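Fig. S4 source data, part A: sequence.
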Amino acid sequence: MPEEEPSTTATPDADSTTTTPAEEPTSSESTSSSETTTAASTNSEPATSLSSSSSSSQPESTSTSASSSSTPMTTSTPMSTKTSTTSSTACVSTVTSAPTCEYECGKWCSKPIPAFDDKPTCKTAVSECILQIADCYEKAGWPASLQCAKFQSWCELVEDYCGKTCGNGKCNKKECTSKNPPMGGETPTSTTVNVCSATTTKATSSTSSTAPVPTVSSICIRPNGPLGSGFSNGKCIGDIEPPALTCNNIANEFDAYPLKLYTDKESAKSPKFEKANAGQACKEACKVQYTSCVGTYAQSCKGKKQQGDQDSYESATDKCKHQYDECLDVNKQSSIGKRCTKFGEGWD
């Protein structure tokens, strides 16, 4: 794999609140009087202060497999509100926004992996991470797509953490990302506002909806070329793997389209397929891989001469095409088999 790797051409492309106190309003009043004039007074208005805090995170190389069963990823949806009135000299309101972008590569940002606290949920986080790699190569843009290999490596670091730390007992995302910080992305931001007046606040209660996070055990078969082909012994050219074809994780699509090719970090934007069209779906997976191979790996070889393991642009492009042809060939008879027979089950 080249030291730097390229971008593909683009194809189809989270918030918690905490409270922290801020400064309290101050007021002052002064009066002066004289024998010949009436009393005058000046009032200072309550001061409003704003403070914010943020925590940063940073970086990661090849994708591997994740859990054999899916673990739901939870999102919160507001359901009801109730109103209360506070009349205090200091009314404090703090809102913390969680990042929607966790790892950044050029034009592309990853969705944050879900929180976890044990090995199964940690593996789910790994799946969420790996499923976004294809989207990175497609949308990061050249030369930023070279950084997608580092995002891939970061996913592997999270997977390594799952095996070593969760297997020994306690583990959680906060500790994992402090040891293996993602690169770029947004940082959580807290904003605290003091208001010196009677205020009306709304407390929001929420309920949870779940969407299973797919595993990355794809229905499609990887081609295994001869030594020197660049895609032998389980490796892909430039370590750029095809997107995973597995069960559809969107409930209202599943009955008609039980298969989904996870090419986009947003499942709803990824193509879905009928049960009988697994072969066609694998064909598309091969094409996505080929586009990324040429757009990133071959692009990184421009201006270089073919020598030993080093490819020129022309030899790299030929290798990408050879891998693509072999991918099409071995997936001609791909089928869903006994997988994806029921929503949320049969991933592997």
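Fig. S4 source data, part B ends here. The longest strand covers residues 72-86.
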